[in-house]
Specification:
With about 600 residues, this protein is of the alpha+beta class. The chain is built from 19 helices and 25 strands. Among the domains are: about 350 residues, no CATH class; about 30 residues. The protein has a 6-stranded mixed sheet with strand order 13-12-11-10-9-20.
Length: about 600
C-alpha cells in the first residue's frame, strides 16, 4: 500500500527531522510530477514535531487547488493543537467560505474538535461574537471542549438569539448562504444543538468527578497528588512492568522450539508491526467494500500489507469492523506451518501499555498492559490474540490490586497476594498456547466434557521475559491514539474473519451469554444489582472511561461463585444527580402549573 514506512524508520525520522526537511516534503507533496510520492511525503510530514509548521501548512494550503492535498494539509494543521495552528485552520476555512466553497468549508469543521488547548479558549469566546457566520461556526464547534459555565451561557444565548431578527440586524442582515438543501444558519443551529448536548454531558461528568473526588479525598488527602506523581506514563509503566513467565504444553498446547534459532517454547508478545516484516509473504487486509485511499481504489477483498502499513489501517476508510486482517499468507505453502511462518518474521518482544487516571476513584491510577500474540494454539485455534493485565494504584500512589485477564473472563487480587519480581514487578504466568494471564503457577481446568476437562497449563516453567532484564520494549498506546490513522483505531479482527481477537479498544470479557456460562469466574455487575454482566470493555468505552467498571465485575481475592457473593454498589452520585437536577426541574414545573391556575 502507498505511504508505507517501517516503524523504526518513522521513529528515527521523528527524532532528526527539521524545518528544512518539512519544506522539502511539502514541495514534494504539491509537485504534480511527484504525484506517486504524495503518500510517502504525507506519512513523513506527520512525524515532524515542530509546532510552528502550521503556518507552512496554511501557506501551502493556499498554493494548491488539489482538494486531496488540501485535505492532507488541513489534517496536518489540526494535529498541532496550538493557538497558532487554530488560527491557521480558521483562516483556511474562512477563505474557502469567502470563495463560495461552502461545502468544503463546513466539511472541515469536523476537524476543529481537535483543538482543546487552554490558550485557545479566550479567542473562541471572542469569535463567538464575530460578524462572520463561518467564524462563529468554528468557535461553536471548538467551544464544546471547554465545559465551564461561561461557555455554556454563550451557547445557550446563541441558541436563543442567533437566528432572531435582532441578531440579523446586528450582523448586517447578510443574505443566507446555502449548503445543499441547508442554509448556513441551519448548519449553525445544528452545531449549537450538538454543542449544547456535549457541554451538558461534560458538565454532568465534571460534577460526577467532583462529587466522587470530594468523597474520596475525605478518605485519602493524598489522592490528587498521587494521580500526577510520576514524571511520565512511561516511567510509571516501567516501574510496574510485568515479569512474564512462559509455560510448556499440557495435554494440549504447543512447543515451537524445534528451530534452535528460536529461543522460546511458545509464541511471545510482539510488536504488531512484526507481522508485516516478511517481504515475500504479506498479510492481507480483507475489505468488505471498495475504498478510495490516496487516489487509489482498494478492494473489495484481500489487499496485501507491506512493512509499516499497519500504521494506516486505522484510517476511517479501513477501520470498519466489517474488515479484518488475514495472517494466513504467512503459512501458505506445502511445507510451511503456522510456527515456521512466524519464524520468518523479524520479532521484537513488546508490551503495550496505557495509563488511566481518575482522582475520583479509590484506586485512582490504572496501568493497563497489553500483549499481542501471533497465534492462539490451545483451544479454538486462531491467529491474532490480545491479552492483558491491569494494575490499580491507590490514593497514595501505591499498587493495590491487579486484574488478570484469562480468555473471556478475569480474576482480581490484592497486591499483597500476588508474586513479585524485584519488589514492584508482578509475575504473570502465561498459559501455553492460549496465553491467558494468571497470578500464580498452576493448571486450570475448563469445559467439563464427556472426555474430561481441558486444562490450561500456566506453570511458568519455561522462558522468562523481564523488562528489568531488557527482554522487551514498552510502547505507549496513548501516543498511538494521537494519530487518527494508526492501527489502534482498527475495529476489525486481527488474523482471520471469525475467531481472531479485536484490538484493545474493543476487547471485552464474556462477549456472549454462552461465553459467560463457560467461564470459571464469570463477571457480575455490582452497579446493576449483581446481574450477570456481558461485554464489558476492558479498555473502557464511551460510558465507562478506563478499566474500573470492568475490574469491578470480579471478586477481590475470592472469586464470586454466584450473584449472592457479589455486593451491589449503590451509586450515591447518581442519587445526588437525581435530586440535584431532577427535583428543581420538578418544582419549577409544579410552580408554573400553580401560576397557570
Amino acid at each position: 500500500m502507498p505511504g508505507e514506512y517501517p516503524h523504526k524508520v518513522r521513529k528515527r525520522f521523528r527524532e532528526i527531522a527539521s524545518r528544512s526537511d518539512a519544506l522539502y516534503l511539502l514541495d514534494r507533496l504539491l509537485g504534480p510530477a511527484q504525484k506517486k510520492e504524495h503518500a510517502f511525503a504525507y506519512t513523513l510530514l506527520k512525524e515532524v514535531a515542530d509546532q510552528d509548521l502550521s503556518e507552512l501548512f496554511e501557506e501551502y494550503f493556499y498554493r494548491t487547488a488539489d482538494q486531496d492535498i488540501q485535505n492532507k494539509l488541513f489534517n496536518l494543521m489540526t494535529r498541532k493543537n496550538s493557538l497558532r495552528a487554530f488560527r491557521n485552520a480558521r483562516g483556511c476555512i474562512n477563505q474557502l467560505f469567502q470563495q463560495g466553497r461552502d461545502d468544503e468549508a463546513i466539511a472541515y469543521l469536523d476537524y476543529i474538535v481537535r483543538f482543546d488547548h487552554p490558550d485557545i479558549r479566550s479567542e473562541l469566546i471572542t469569535d463567538a461574537s464575530s460578524a462572520s457566520n463561518i467564524v462563529r461556526a468554528v468557535s461553536y464547534v471548538a467551544l464544546r471542549n471547554y465545559p465551564d459555565m461561561e461557555v455554556r451561557s454563550i451557547i445557550d444565548n446563541a441558541l436563543s438569539s442567533e437566528f432572531s431578527s435582532a441578531a440579523d440586524e446586528a450582523i448586517g442582515n447578510s443574505p443566507s448562504r446555502k449548503r445543499g438543501q441547508q442554509s448556513i444558519d441551519d448548519i449553525l443551529r445544528e452545531i449549537l444543538k450538538t454543542g449544547k448536548r456535549e457541554l451538558e454531558k461534560s458538565w454532568l461528568d465534571q460534577n460526577d468527578r467532583k462529587i466522587r473526588r470530594e468523597r474520596s479525598e475525605e478518605d485519602s488527602p493524598q489522592q490528587a497528588e498521587a494521580v500526577t506523581a510520576y514524571a511520565s506514563d512511561l516511567e510509571l509503566a516501567a516501574q510496574y512492568a510485568p515479569h512474564l513467565l512462559l509455560s510448556g504444553p499440557g495435554i494440549i498446547g504447543v512447543d515451537i522450539r524445534e528451530d534452535p534459532d528460536y529461543p522460546y517454547t511458545d509464541y511471545i508478545p510482539i510488536d504488531v508491526n512484526n507481522v508485516t516484516t516478511n517481504p515475500e509473504k504479506k498479510i492481507n487486509i480483507n475489505l468488505a467494500t471498495a475504498v478510495l485511499y490516496n487516489e487509489t481504489t482498494y478492494g473489495p477483498g484481500d489487499v496485501p500489507l507491506g512493512d509499516g502499513a499497519l500504521d494506516i489501517i486505522g484510517d476511517a476508510v479501513f477501520r470498519s469492523s466489517a474488515n479484518y486482517l488475514d495472517f494466513s499468507p504467512l503459512w501458505d505453502g506445502l511445507f510451511t506451518t503456522v510456527s515456521s511462518g512466524y519464524k520468518t518474521l523479524s520479532l521484537d518482544p513488546t508490551v503495550y501499555f496505557k495509563v488511566f487516571r481518575n482522582a475520583s476513584k479509590e484506586n485512582s491510577i490504572a496501568v493497563q498492559y497489553w500483549f499481542f500474540y501471533y497465534y492462539n494454539d490451545w483451544l479454538n485455534d486462531h491467529p491474532g490474540d490480545w491479552e492483558t493485565i491491569t494494575i490499580f494504584l491507590n490514593g497514595s500512589g501505591e499498587p493495590a490490586e491487579v486484574a488478570f485477564s484469562t480468555h473471556y473472563e478475569a480474576s482480581r487480587y490484592s497486591w499483597a497476594n500476588i508474586e513479585l519480581d524485584n519488589a514492584t514487578h508482578a509475575k504473570v504466568y502465561i498459559s501455553n498456547g492460549g496465553h491467558g494471564s494468571y497470578y500464580q503457577s498452576g493448571n486450570t481446568s475448563y469445559f467439563d466434557t464427556p472426555l474430561g476437562n481441558i486444562n490450561d497449563n500456566h506453570m511458568g516453567d519455561k522462558e522468562v521475559l523481564s523488562y528489568v532484564g531488557a527482554d522487551y520494549t514498552l510502547i505507549d498506546l496513548q501516543e498511538l491514539e494521537s494519530t487518527d490513522e494508526n492501527w489502534i483505531w482498527f475495529e476489525g479482527r486481527w488474523g482471520d474473519e471469525d475467531s481472531a481477537s479485536q484490538g484493545p479498544h474493543l476487547r471485552t470479557d464474556a462477549p456472549t451469554a454462552n461465553d459467560w456460562g463457560l467461564a470459571n469466574n464469570p463477571p457480575y455487575d455490582p452497579y446493576n444489582m449483581c446481574e450477570p454482566r456481558y461485554q464489558a470493555h476492558i479498555y473502557g468505552d464511551a460510558m465507562n472511561n478506563g478499566p474500573w467498571y470492568w475490574g469491578a465485575g470480579y471478586g477481590l481475592d475470592t472469586p464470586w461463585d454466584s450473584a449472592d457473593d457479589c455486593e451491589p454498589i449503590v451509586d450515591s452520585v447518581e442519587s445526588a444527580f437525581s435530586w440535584n437536577l431532577f427535583l428543581p426541574a420538578l418544582l419549577g414545573a409544579t410552580l408554573s402549573a400553580a401560576r397557570a391556575r
